[in-house]
Specification:
With 222 residues, the protein is α/β, with parallel strands linked by helices. Helices cover 45% and strands 14% of the residues. The chain has nine helices and eight strands. The strands form two sheets. Strands 2-3-1-4-8 form a five-stranded parallel β-sheet. The chain has a three-stranded antiparallel β-sheet with strand order 6-5-7. Strand 5 (126-129) and strand 6 form a beta hairpin. Helix 2 crosses helix 3 and helix 4 runs parallel beside helix 5 (89-101). The radius of gyration is 17 Å and the shape is globular. Bound molecules: BIS(adenosine)-5'-pentaphosphate. BIS(adenosine)-5'-pentaphosphate is lined by residues 7, 9-15, 31-32, 35, 52-53, 56-59, 64, 84-85, 87, 91, 122-123, 126, 135, 137, 140-141, 162, 171, 200-201, 204.
Length: 222
Amino acid sequence: MNIILLGPPGAGKGTQAQRLVDTRGMVQLSTGDMLRAAVKAGTPVGLKAKAVMEAGELVSDAIVSALIGEHLDASQDRGAIFDGFPRTKHQAAALEMLLGEKGRTLDHVIELEVDEEALVERITGRFSCANCGVGYHDRFKLPKVEKTCDVCGAHEFKRRPDDNEQTVRTRMAEYRAKTAPILPYYEERGLVRRVDGMASVEEVARQIDAILDGLPARAVRL
Ligand code: AP5
């Protein structure tokens, strides 16, 4: 099964993708994570992407489509969760071509419906363990022991450079202008399913599971 998780910054795409990796063994293909890894490693792609990401704008279609192409085979047997890709009509067309070349199809496009104002708080409060990467939040999920990672016990934490309010607002504007318009493309193909992204993490997960398990439409929000 291959699915897209679609929603504005902070909608919970990464949180739900990680859960599907843990519970179903699917492979998360996050262009945001791929780009951050390239920035950290100082590769040519990373050097081009750094300033664009810090401004909250979109990296070029050619770069991100090439990144997905490089990583697609890793999900051949276990199914892919596209997290943060596609983000433009051009990327949607590139994904269709890449999947078609491998004889693969798209099963669901799951839109996380959210209230953008609430997302600013979600994003600006987010931080993660500098050692193992597990995510926390100033309000919703603090480490059980102050300044100590629940998972690995490390004491260093980090925040994303693009997680400040000004950049978040630019990221949201980019979503409205360039990403939301790809929904009709998938609506026409009957692939769009909607979940309530403002519900608890567990409830959102339940709604996504219902979609993936093919429960009747009224059991999920269509
Ligand atoms: P990317 O890394 O994809 O960031 P994003 O889309 O802005 O999404 P986020 O990672 O911020 O949010 P999320 O939806 O994953 O939410 P999360 O689960 O973390 O992209 C970053 C940048 O890279 C872009 O701006 C662009 O420059 C570039 N880029 C990436 N892909 C690109 C592409 N395809 N084309 C061009 N450029 C590209 O949750 C957020 C917080 O909320 C967490 O703290 C979490 O714990 C909490 N939370 C989650 N769910 C809930 C819930 N239900 N209730 C309460 N809290 C919750």
